[in-house]
Every structure is written in structure tokens, then in C-alpha cells.
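REQUEST FORM: STRUCTURE PREDICTION
Request ID: SP-0412
Submitted by: Lab K.M.
Chain count: 1
Length (residues): 152
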Amino acid sequence: MDLAKCISEATQEIFQSMLMAEARPAAPIQTRSNKFTDSVSGLVGLAGNYRGMLAIHVPNAVAMSITSKFLFMEIEEIDDDVKDAIGELANMLAGSVKSMLTETGSGLKLAIPSAISGTEYEVECLSDAEGVIVPFSIDEGEFLVECYLQNC
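STATUS: Completed
RESULT:
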């Protein structure tokens, strides 16, 4: 299973179809930083044949731009609409990765997506799980998608 490839394909497809934007992947990052500044993170837990988490970490300006495209309206501050949009983006990514990992889609359940934002926060995940972090760029800026999975 090439998790980085799954994330790259899912992210490119969702950004193209939902936002009419080209998400350009870069080489996966090996070292994880769990500290984020002036950002919004969407998180989805995974359970079943695997357990883990998929997250998207987006700087505020990029998150507002993505939300503007989602909602077809100008967004000027980080509010519940932005958190909902980034959480839903994480949910769509997790759903795509789920379907790539399990041919039938069974054996892997997704938790309800959540989102956090702030001037400074940390996101912890399974330290002993296999994971990958893929940076992406769109015209408005850069963001990260990470996924950590552990066989159960």
C-alpha cells in the first residue's frame, strides 16, 4: 500500500472536482511537526481493519480561500463556516483513502470529522503508526495532508 500515492491522488481529485483547483503534491515529508500556527486543521479518525487518523492542516489565508470556493461567497475571517469546510474536506479525503485501502469499503469506519483552529495549537496522533505527510500547493498557498494508520 502506497499511502502517499493514495493521498496525492485523492487530494488532486477532490480539489479538481470540488474546487476547480489544481492541488500540486510535493515529495512526502519524513519529519512531523505537531505544532501549527494561524491555521485550521480538519481531522477524521479511522477504525476497523486499521486504526488511525487523516488530517489536513491549512494556513488561515488558504483555508479562507478554499472555503470561499466551497461556498461561492467571500470569507474574511476564520469562523464556523471555515472550520466546517476544512472538516468536510478532511472527511472527503478520508473517504477516498478508505475506498483505495479497502476494495469493498468495509472493514474501515470513519469518525465524524472535526476541525480546530487557533493562533497556536498541537495535533497529536499515533506515534507508533505508519504514516505519511504530503505537502500540496494551490495558487493561494500551501497545505499539508497527513495520514497515520496501524493494522489492527
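NOTES: The mean pLDDT is 91.
Reviewed by: T.R.
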